[in-house]
Amino acid sequence: MRTKTLILTAALGVAGAASAMAQVYSVNAVGYINLTASPGFIMMANQLDNGSGNMVKDLMPAPAEGTTLYKFMSDSGAYDINSFEFGEWSKPDMVLGLGEGAFLRNPTAESFTITLVGEVPQGTLTTEVPAGFAIVSSQVPQAGQIDTVLGYPAVEGDTVYLWAVAAQTYIIATYEFGEWSVPPVVGVGDSFFSSKGAPATWTREFSVND
User: Fold this and answer.
1) At 27, is the pLDDT very low, low, confident or very high (cuts 50, 70, 90)?
2) Strand, coil or helix: what is 68?
3) How far is CA 104 from the centre of its chain?
4) What's the half-sphere exposure (Cβ side, CA atoms, 13 Å) at 70?
5) Closest CA relative to residue 138, chosen from 96, 192, 94
6) Would 202 be classed as within a structural domain?
7) Of 120, 146, 163, 106, which is closest to residue 33 (Cα–Cα)?
8) Residues of the chain with pLDDT > 90: what percent?
9) Is 106 part of a structural domain of the chain?
């Protein structure tokens, strides 16, 4: 999934020199993420807090007609399905919160862009990862390996399923003998399937000033 992220610092602190490389001290930061919804399926995440509950009707007000969102429900093992038809979502108040993720299907032959706008999460960020299967994501709009860069709590026996958009299939990475069979790297706006033997808490300290 091709993505573009812009972080705009909110002037709630003291700014440094007006240079592109100057450090900016601030309390809050807002920005946007452009996600490319290619034909077929993508696995997406919302990594900015829009301040209004992060409901699908606000996050994606005008996707392509026929777009469908599949949110996996770990407790039941089923998908909660939300379709955009005749200019509106079937479940407009569905929430796609920080740390969550979902499959999005673009039924058309052309890509379209989803622009997510909101505040960058900061501070102590926690995501509860259940035992079994779950779609999860980093709360921070940052690319990298899920454990070494993004802090995912990998333990022996874990498996993650990354989505390869071009091939429309999974890349499967297992964690055995202290290392991954394939380095699990995600991009900004990506989510992935996690499979764990026991529940865990994904915790990360993050600041835009670090």
Assistant:
1) low
2) strand
3) 12
4) 15
5) 192
6) yes
7) 120
8) 85
9) no
- Pair type for strands 78-85 and 29-37: unpaired
Tally of domains in the chain: 1
Range of the domain at 148: 120-206
pLDDT, tens digit, 9 for 90 and up, residues 76-133: 999 999 999 999 999 999 999 999 999 999 999 999 999 999 999 999 999 999 999 9
Residue 78 within any structural domain of the chain:
no
Coil, strand or helix: which one is 200? Answer: strand
pTM: 0.87
110-142: buried (b, 16+ CB within 10 Å) or exposed (e) per residue? Answer: eebebebebebbbeebebebeeeebbbbbbbbb
Give me the amino acid identity at 75.
D
Cβ neighbourhood burial of 71 (10 Å; 0-12, 13-18, 19+): buried
Q: Say which residue, 27 or 193, is predicted with more confidence.
A: 193
Classify residue 180: in a domain, yes or no: yes
